[in-house]
Write a structure and sequence with these properties.
Helices cover 36% and strands 21% of the residues. It is α/β, with parallel strands linked by helices.
Length: 133
């Protein structure tokens, strides 16, 4: 473990010494990770996970540039590339990487697929947590 200062706050974090890639692969061997969104963050995160041996699928709105980019990057429609709702249905871990506006728009489709045993995480989530009255 290491203590790292993040903007003036000291946090204890687990490092690769305590949790190497092989342990992560073993821990997540039965999980399907759906990367929702293939814009700024989706390609790097999904391809990194796939290249490191994790089961990954991509959820994206059909018909746009990002859908075409996912196809060009080797994701296969109906096998590893799905519309957002179907990817959420098929995943045990949902990585929500749409833009803030996209997260708000797609939230109901994602939310209804958050069934017991599934995990949802964000790399950013301002659009979901912000509430102006």
């Amino acid at each position: 473990m290491a203590t790292i200062n993040f903007g003036g706050v000291n946090e204890t974090v687990i490092t690769r010494d305590e949790f190497p890639l092989e342990k992560a692969q073993e821990t997540l061997k039965n999980e399907v990770i759906a990367v929702i969104g293939y814009g700024v963050q989706g390609p790097g995160q999904s391809l990194n996970l796939k290249d490191n041996g994790f089961k990954v699928i991509v959820g994206q709105r059909k018909g746009g540039k990002s859908w075409d980019k996912a196809l060009a990057d080797g994701w296969e429609e109906g096998k590893t590339l799905f519309d957002i709702e179907e990817a959420c249905e098929n995943a045990t871990i949902i990585q929500y990487l749409l833009s803030d506006a996209g997260q708000i728009e797609a939230w109901q489709s994602v939310k209804k697929n958050l069934t017991p045993g599934k995990t949802l995480y964000f790399s950013h989530g301002f659009g979901i947590t912000f509430n102006e009255k």
